[in-house]
Amino acid sequence: MARRAEKLRIGITCYPTFGGSGVLATELGKQLALQGHEIHFISYALPYRLKGFYSNVYFHEVQVSSYPLFEYQPYTLTLAVKMHAVTEEYGLDLLHVHYAIPHATSAWIAKEMLGRDHPIKVITTLHGTDITLVGAEASFKSITRFSIERSDGVTAVSRYLHQHTVGEFQIKRAIEIIPNFVDTELFQRSPVKDCSRDMLAPDGSKVIIHISNMRPVKRMGDLIRVFAAVRSRIKARLILVGDGPERAGAYQLAEQLGVGGDCVFLGAQESIASLLNCSDLYLQTSATESFGLSILEALSTGVPVISTRCGGPEEVVLHGECGFLSEVGDVEDMAANSIRLLTDSDMHRAFSRKARERVIENYTIQDITARYEEYYHRVLQSPNSSGR
Ligand code: GMT
Question: Recorded GO terms, molecular function (predicted)?
Answer without folding.
Answer: glycosyltransferase activity
